[in-house]
Every structure is written in structure tokens, then in C-alpha cells.
Design brief:
The protein is globular, with a radius of gyration of 16 Å. It has about 110 residues and is mainly alpha-helical. It is built from 5 helices and 2 strands, in the order E-E-H-H-H-H-H. A hairpin with a 2-residue loop joins strand 1 and strand 2. Helices cover about 45% and strands about 10% of the residues. Helix 4 crosses helix 5. A two-stranded antiparallel ribbon has the order 1-2.
Length: about 110
């Protein structure tokens, strides 16, 4: 396999580099509305991860998979308290700091 992996795309086999990341999904931020917890977490998470210079794969482990992180950053999944605490530690924050940042983002609407 090397750095390449066979993937099936629309019924066609193609060889795509495994390390080639997809661009992050665009988040639709409602104008003049309060952000949901999930959307605010997605924004804070993505910004913090990028500021630390780490990828979703580097952030992932057995508890928080890369797929789960991707869904969280896309505001497509909720997070439980135990995983929230793990996520905060992985983002080099205390859980209360992450919660404070998410709450600020929800209140600031941007």
C-alpha cells in the first residue's frame, strides 16, 4: 500500500494518497442569531486545534476517533461530558476553559 490506499469513489477505483486531507467543511453561521452549543464548540475546537498546529488525526485516539472529531468540528454531533473533558485535555485546556470559550462564542454570535 505505501502512502496510497485504494478507495471506491462513485463505483470507480482510484488511488488517493492517504495523507491528503480534505478541506474542512464550511459551517453555516446564522446571522443575528445565538449560536448553538454544537456550532460554538465546532468553531472553538477548529480554531484551537489549528492554533496548536495539529491535525484531526493527531488529536484522535481510541476514545475520540478522527471521524468523531470531524463530526464535532462540523457541528454534526453532540458530545457527552466525559468526552468533553477528554477533548479539553487534548486541546491543552482545562474543561472549564473550553466551556467558557464555547459559552463566550455562543453569546458573541460570531
Amino acid at each position: 500500500y505505501g502512502d496510497y490506499h485504494n478507495r471506491v469513489n462513485w463505483g470507480l477505483r482510484c488511488r488517493v494518497p492517504c495523507s491528503m486531507p480534505r478541506p474542512p467543511s464550511k459551517l453555516s453561521i446564522p446571522a443575528n442569531k445565538k449560536l448553538s452549543f454544537e456550532l460554538a464548540l465546532a468553531l472553538v475546537m477548529r480554531e484551537r486545534r489549528k492554533s496548536l498546529g495539529i491535525s484531526q488525526e493527531e488529536l484522535a485516539d481510541d476514545t475520540l476517533t478522527q471521524s468523531h472529531i470531524s463530526f464535532l468540528e462540523g457541528a454534526k454531533r453532540e458530545i457527552g461530558m466525559s468526552r468533553f473533558v477528554i477533548l479539553a485535555k487534548k486541546l491543552q485546556m482545562e474543561p472549564w476553559e473550553l466551556l467558557r470559550e464555547v459559552t463566550r462564542r455562543m453569546e458573541s454570535k460570531k
